[in-house]
């Protein structure tokens, strides 16, 4: 008998992730607020549920791939949707949620006999489609081991980061480093251009030098200099992730200046351009300030 998976959140990331599970012979029942997203799942061979509760009925595993941890809790608890899950079922939150929300969620789930693994991902839409996402998993060793086959269907490398919430902490830290790298790369290009250098040459030199990062290697030519801004990762989501990292630092009494400033810059850009702009469009905000 196929393992039944409730998949909640069928957006840019959730859709291709769910498709890999269908191809790997899981019985996927998906829910998303968007009818287009549900129809897309149906066209990929999944069952489109009309509510989270219907998706979760008799499921062995519930996966959430939603904008943030508050929405994850809503999806599971509003209308008591979780009650349909099989007793002792495993919930895997693959969204980039705040680790504090994740610990709350773990308590609520434990209280009703369910288990939680936080397993956010990195690699973007491209690697979600390829099935090669990096997965950072927090939770009980046995729970993570139980779903290693499922993770293999979606991802490439799986890292065990520690207890519940550690995967989400790791993800926020990754996106801080990534988001700071985007700012550094764009500011470097703006500075170089003002001095009269050619932007494409600048990127080539950085990529052959110690200044290279993911933004110079991938995002700069493909999405930023081309002005296509089509990475598939929204500005509002990046701003959220870096704010999670900044809040975490605050809660630990750490003064991390670059982190604080990076979070502020991404928030300001989100407010100026709107949260649904692609995150690579932040060059427009940085340009407008000059
Ligand atoms: P998205 O906006 O494309 O998809 C989110 C989906 O959730 C949407 O289809 C929306 O309709 C649905 N949704 C919202 N509230 C809902 C609810 N209450 N019930 C059911 N469905 C609901 O976002 P995405 O890019 O797929 O990102 C999802 C998560 O993955 C976020 O936490 C994001 O930070 C993270 N993430 C994104 C990327 C990326 O490159 N896009 C990479 C890694 C991690």
TrEMBL record:
<comment type="similarity">
    <text>Belongs to the HIBADH-related family.</text>
</comment>
<dbReference type="Pfam" id="PF14833">
    <property type="entry name" value="NAD_binding_11"/>
</dbReference>
<keyword id="KW-0560">Oxidoreductase</keyword>
<feature type="active site">
    <location>
        <position position="171"/>
    </location>
</feature>
<dbReference type="InterPro" id="IPR015815">
    <property type="entry name" value="HIBADH-related"/>
</dbReference>
<dbReference type="InterPro" id="IPR006115">
    <property type="entry name" value="6PGDH_NADP-bd"/>
</dbReference>
<feature type="domain" description="6-phosphogluconate dehydrogenase NADP-binding">
    <location>
        <begin position="4"/>
        <end position="162"/>
    </location>
</feature>
<feature type="domain" description="3-hydroxyisobutyrate dehydrogenase-like NAD-binding">
    <location>
        <begin position="165"/>
        <end position="286"/>
    </location>
</feature>
<dbReference type="GO" id="GO:0016491">
    <property type="term" value="F:oxidoreductase activity"/>
</dbReference>
<dbReference type="Pfam" id="PF03446">
    <property type="entry name" value="NAD_binding_2"/>
</dbReference>
<dbReference type="InterPro" id="IPR013328">
    <property type="entry name" value="6PGD_dom2"/>
</dbReference>
<dbReference type="InterPro" id="IPR002204">
    <property type="entry name" value="3-OH-isobutyrate_DH-rel_CS"/>
</dbReference>
<dbReference type="InterPro" id="IPR029154">
    <property type="entry name" value="HIBADH-like_NADP-bd"/>
</dbReference>
<dbReference type="GO" id="GO:0016054">
    <property type="term" value="P:organic acid catabolic process"/>
</dbReference>
<dbReference type="InterPro" id="IPR036291">
    <property type="entry name" value="NAD(P)-bd_dom_sf"/>
</dbReference>
<protein>
    <submittedName>
        <fullName>2-hydroxy-3-oxopropionate reductase</fullName>
    </submittedName>
</protein>
<dbReference type="GO" id="GO:0051287">
    <property type="term" value="F:NAD binding"/>
</dbReference>
<dbReference type="GO" id="GO:0050661">
    <property type="term" value="F:NADP binding"/>
</dbReference>
<dbReference type="InterPro" id="IPR008927">
    <property type="entry name" value="6-PGluconate_DH-like_C_sf"/>
</dbReference>
<keyword id="KW-0520">NAD</keyword>
